[in-house]
Amino acid sequence: DQTPTLIFDEIDQGLGGRVGHVVGQKLWQLAAAHQVLCITHLPQLAGFGDAHFRVEKQVRGRRTVTSAATLPAAARLVELAEMLGGDSAANRQSAAELLELVAVSKQGTKARKPR
């Protein structure tokens, strides 16, 4: 396959957390040969990204403005907590556990070539 970049927009629609985790594994495997961009609202899927961006739309006067920012590790944890239902200590703990589960899944998944 010669397609360098794959873009998935809300690939998580209709999926639950367990299936989202499996889809995340598959997308991560695809990233061995492609650049994968995925727009998702499912933290189980977002946890598999090597980079995490927060995209926001705001209305300013009569204009809608979209911004994107790369999240460092601490901000990523907060964002995943928000995706789980809100920035609380319990959700931050769940987000940390989710990232640990993803790390274990990545180790057990077919090895990727570095990009």
Task: Characterise the protein shown here.
With 115 residues, the protein is of the alpha+beta class. The protein has one domain (5-108). The protein is built from 4 helices and 4 strands. The chain has helices at 17-30, 43-46, 73-84, 89-108, and strands at residues 5-9, 35-39, 53-60, 63-70. β3 (53-60) and β4 form a beta hairpin. α3 crosses α4 (89-108). The protein starts with a strand and ends in a 7-residue tail after the last helix. The relative contact order is 0.16. The mean pLDDT is 90.
Features:
alpha+beta, 4 strands, single chain, about 120 residues, two-stranded parallel sheet, two-stranded antiparallel ribbon, about 45% helix
Multimeric state of these chains? single chain
Strand content: 15-25%
| Separate helix tally | 4
Lateral strand order in the biggest sheet: 1-2
What is the share of helical residues? 40-55%
Average of pLDDT: 90
- What radius of gyration results from the CA coordinates? 15 Å
Low-confidence stretches: none
> Main sheet?
2 strands, parallel
Distance between the termini: 16 Å
Q: How many E-type strands?
A: 4
Q: Total domains, how many?
A: 1
Order of helices and strands: EHEHEEHH
Morphology: globular
